[in-house]
Write a sequence for this structure.
């Protein structure tokens, strides 16, 4: 879990480690590339921090995200997606993982389409101000820390993760009446 009083950001995208390195020199930030670390290792690392901001690239929902993308890209089965959701809900229930305060999505315009729908659709629909598209992996990320948006916190994963399989790319986030009718 994150250190008490710390704001946790998970940076995602091809240049995540570069973005994290740009923050390492800041006194109020503990930053590290942890994409290959286990959930337990990340939890211990976060708990040891006394910094106001904790920034890394280990997505606690990464397996769910990959299973969702693979399912909708016809590379995996529904059973795999269900299994990853079950595992994530179990880990969250044991407090072995927690959703970070913010996800920073680097260069969302170049993401593969289904991944874009995951980050800016599925996740953003649950807490819109907690998923931040960011155009650069450079030191400008430090300015984001000074002006993080406020908004409702993430709901408990048990309240929304079971709905993820029904979140269809190109339709996620749409509500009845939001769909184009084809009328001019």
């Amino acid at each position: 879990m994150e250190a008490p009083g710390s704001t946790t950001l998970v940076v995602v995208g091809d240049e995540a480690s570069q973005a994290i390195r740009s923050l390492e020199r800041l006194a109020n930030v503990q930053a590290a590339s942890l994409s290959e670390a286990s959930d337990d290792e990340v939890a211990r690392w976060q708990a040891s921090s006394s910094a106001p901001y904790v920034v890394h690239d280990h997505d606690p929902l990464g397996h769910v995200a990959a299973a969702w993308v693979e399912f909708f890209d016809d590379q995996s089965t529904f059973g795999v997606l269900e299994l990853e959701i079950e595992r994530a809900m179990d880990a969250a229930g044991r407090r072995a993982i927690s959703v970070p305060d913010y996800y920073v999505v680097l260069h969302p315009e170049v993401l593969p389409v289904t991944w874009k729908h995951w980050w800016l659709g599925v996740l953003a629909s649950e807490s819109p101000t907690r998923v931040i598209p960011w155009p650069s992996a450079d030191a400008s990320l430090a300015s984001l820390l000074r002006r993080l948006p406020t908004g409702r916190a993430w709901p408990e994963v048990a309240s929304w993760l079971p709905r993820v399989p029904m979140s269809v790319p190109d339709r996620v986030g749409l509500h009845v009446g939001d769909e184009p009718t084809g009328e001019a």
Observations:
- The radius of gyration is 17 Å.
